[in-house]
Input
Amino acid sequence: MTDQIKYVLGEKDIPRTWYNLAADLPGGAPMLHPGTGAEITVDDLLGIMPETLARQELSREAEIEIPEPVRQIYAQFRPAPLFRARRLERALGTPARIYYKYEGGSPAGSHKPNTAIAQAYYNKQAGVTRLATETGAGQWGSSLALAGALFEMDVSVFMVKVSYHQKPYRRMLMATYGARCVPSPSTETAAGRAILAEDPDCPGSLGIATSEALEVAGGNSDVNYAGGSVLNHVLLHQSVIGQEAIAQFALADDYPDIVIGATGGGSNFGGLAFPFLGAQLRGGSTVRVIAAEPSSCPTMTQGTLSYDFGDTAGLTPLIKMHTLGHSFVPPPVHAGGLRYHGMAPLVSEALDRDLIEATAVKQLSCFASGITFARAEGIVPAPESTHAIDVAIREALRCRDEGVARTILFGLSGHGHFDLGAYEAYLSGSLRDEEFDPAALESSLAKLPGFVSV
Amino acid sequence: MTDQIKYVLGEKDIPRTWYNLAADLPGGAPMLHPGTGAEITVDDLLGIMPETLARQELSREAEIEIPEPVRQIYAQFRPAPLFRARRLERALGTPARIYYKYEGGSPAGSHKPNTAIAQAYYNKQAGVTRLATETGAGQWGSSLALAGALFEMDVSVFMVKVSYHQKPYRRMLMATYGARCVPSPSTETAAGRAILAEDPDCPGSLGIATSEALEVAGGNSDVNYAGGSVLNHVLLHQSVIGQEAIAQFALADDYPDIVIGATGGGSNFGGLAFPFLGAQLRGGSTVRVIAAEPSSCPTMTQGTLSYDFGDTAGLTPLIKMHTLGHSFVPPPVHAGGLRYHGMAPLVSEALDRDLIEATAVKQLSCFASGITFARAEGIVPAPESTHAIDVAIREALRCRDEGVARTILFGLSGHGHFDLGAYEAYLSGSLRDEEFDPAALESSLAKLPGFVSV
Output
């Protein structure tokens, strides 16, 4: 084949270790106990996760071994393909070489099983048989439901209410795997009831759903919490994405000048970009790394870098991150997986050190780019992924205008087969850009916890 | 990895030719002109398809070259993986080795792009820019919509009305690719209007939708018809499935004793099984080949082998096939892709020569098997595919009971991400087995055309 479009690795090429960017960013701010202000320890986390995961959460080691049973399940859909988007390049008339790392081939249709399987495995090893979690668009919830089915565990998912209604097939997918899915805010938790008392029509948010899941996990000794993003160990597990991509670029005899990922909590972005950043920090080629966030929930471009809670009710440790304030409720855009008030501490740290840049993109532009991509490459992207596509297309067009042939890599975190209602709304003209409300930000930032950054 | 679960081939291993079973079944009954009874010629077909496809339709050559631009598009999702279902084997406690050839990784989520891309390519080469077709569950329609997007062609899809309402996301997927999707029977054609006049609540069928598409293609010189199943050239294009599987079994150092495919019109079944039958007819190992059809539309197990029309209105040539009669309207089961009154002539011929066997399976049993599979293997199967799974599980349990370790291969033709409404109905207990009505069969068979089998 003259014009190769797919770079494939074998089962034996699945990474044997996860890569931890924390090892290469010494001096990062630790998580703090909200009551005492003391640094969080492994013991503090044991109420909601097994010791293995607690140790990974706080680890500063660069490489952590992937258990063989996890690699064995990964083997069904990993290594994930790296595609050269030749048809999109032609459609754009750009000299840029555009690549995308596609995670939609997993049984749940996104990158989320990379950590769901690992978390279910470690919990099962520790004798835990029940897991609770939150989900936005449902990619994370259905991935944990999948992992629960594979390890025969009970899974309860609090799904952000607006997404629960926008994406009914995600809820049905969870049920097919045998999991329980509850629209959040719900009446099942004190956190949910408090929100509903204040605003019965609250569309929900990832912060609220996280409070509900944490409350259930914290209050039941046989239930653990499983997080879909933000946390260090989640980004750690996702590092298989970028590690594979680096090996695939060697096959392609190329290397990215620009790496782009969509960012909600940071797990797909971190999974893709961190191994490239790690290589750079250890003397490898410099890459321009761009985090693409929704303009309706502009954590990095409009938020502040501060200690804040990871959830709305304030049940998590304090985490230093770019945040809109834990009480911020983002407008109901279709990219439900990006509707989170904060940003993973490792992504926040990388941004603070100017290792990456952030840009905010609008919903309508993202759907237009998603359709351009779908009609050129065939794959209909998840609304979250269209944020990366939108920036990639912008950079490819800049290459065209400047007459420069840069190599662009973006993360295609999942397919949009569950999100076609959003595409229909876009095509019918009924979708609009959700405006970001500076007053809501001001009010939310006023409620930040009083701890000063250390 | 000790227990390999995936057998992967490289881009260069995509077959270079399609395999045509007709070459190894000499003396098969030709298609006949309904007016004259004469054998159909290439010229007769040119009103609805380009010469290249018409020649493939009537070809008796064993191997037909795959154009390089088609292979280039195949490369995005082919070779498709062959999986060893080790987790399902453990769940069933069977000594059988179960494999499945998974076609759900294509951008449209099924095997249908294998022929959609080829047909769009040949039409585009011939200067045709508009295509019309029918679709049941929507897998074919969305695949042709995908191919239309890639080749910049206008695509109109008549979608069986019951599936149009059961599977709204399929319709939205077609729209995202830029195609037009119309519920059938529609008022846009004489065939549709005639059906609606008799039964305004008609749920539609593949036979009716085919009539509508053929009418549009036949009546417009710039529109061609593209068929999703049944026709010889469609099964030809699908032969990449079985050819790849044979190469993958060599990697696994194994070979199937039993090959199982779900059958509606026969394209997934033929694509998987024919290369194995061809190898057997040329002196290779004997395989037991089982066609799994729905008991609500039992073309092979209850129908008759006769010349009949491929569509309800009688616009096609006469085709010798197992049929329930072209006026038979199957009950509205969720496996919309299997709701077809006839069977591909090559599959019918193979059944008549005892090269394959047929079995009918019930909807509820299929969904139960589909859920067993999903919870063990992670992939939620399309309702059509669950028919093959149901038979595979039955054979695997027979291996357990007999203490025999047979090798079983089945075709997993697509994922069920668009069909979760059906799973929800099953899980909630509201789904039922649709009974086959012998009186409807009798009445339909009475309307068979008068031609006697030659």
